[in-house]
Amino acid sequence: MERIEVATKSRQGFYDITAEVRTAITRSGVQEGICFLFCPHTTAGLTFNENWDPNVRHDLGVGLDAISPQRTAYRHAEMNSPAHIKSSLMGASQFLLVEKGRPVLGSWQGVYLAEFDGPRRRTVWVKVVAG
Amino acid sequence: MERIEVATKSRQGFYDITAEVRTAITRSGVQEGICFLFCPHTTAGLTFNENWDPNVRHDLGVGLDAISPQRTAYRHAEMNSPAHIKSSLMGASQFLLVEKGRPVLGSWQGVYLAEFDGPRRRTVWVKVVAG
Amino acid sequence: MERIEVATKSRQGFYDITAEVRTAITRSGVQEGICFLFCPHTTAGLTFNENWDPNVRHDLGVGLDAISPQRTAYRHAEMNSPAHIKSSLMGASQFLLVEKGRPVLGSWQGVYLAEFDGPRRRTVWVKVVAG
How high is the ipTM of this complex? Predict the structure, then answer.
């Protein structure tokens, strides 16, 4: 298992970890298989989305804030329930396929750590399995 | 493949199955690998979230009810379309990494069966693969 | 890796690819293992949901439109940010378990390509691994 470390810079943001995932796959020596990614945090998540226009990440943040705002019925004293919900909406366990030692992604696709309660130090666990 | 059975107690709730997942991994004898979890229901799902403050699960329920309420344009006669949508939002297929015969999770992370149309008897399928 | 091709017919819709997944598993010759599905698009996704009453897919579309509408604060010039968000909400990486050479799904469960910015030609990548 490898670790990708991300120092997030603000409350919410999407951090492209595609290059780090690529490096982890290379280091594993696996040519054909699956690269498993796991986010061990409950106010962050993992998602695939567009890697070209940064406005897409901006809009993803605006959209998720509108979908999961602060609500008066929430009880959690840390006041970060909107972030916990976004974390479950994005997901903690994601994988990608590996061919010829490289991740296979769509042309416009990147892998993102989604921060919802930053800034913090975050970790993504990576395990590459041949198959 | 193993099965984890959960008897849910109300319309909506989050049931911690982390201990059952741990037991399934131990029983598999796998030391290093992946534990695959699959929810075969379309009005329930699987998610990872905080295992400490139960208010987080309360707020997750309140938040999902607000995100996916009953809507007048829905046609499904069973009236449980909000639950079908929540099921797709949480996800049916989730995995976790296994090291030294144990699941590796974040400090505050538990594995939850999310019930959205209970009470019912629910099953989670578990398959542990070495790798 | 196999490819499932789907020609979507309208802006939004859910396309049942369960039969194609079944065929890919048969062709792989794998009897026990995991079938990994990956959607290489950032305005489409993969989800499991009810395969019986088509009204459930209708309602899933209505619900996701309400959850992720167009918003004035969006900046992405292609005007399809609602679709990008739905893509992340559904997910790009999903798997299902394989037993006796067949996918194991719940009685009412199908595998769907979720189109959010069609009509287009879409592809789903499939990899079946024994384990």
Answer: 0.97
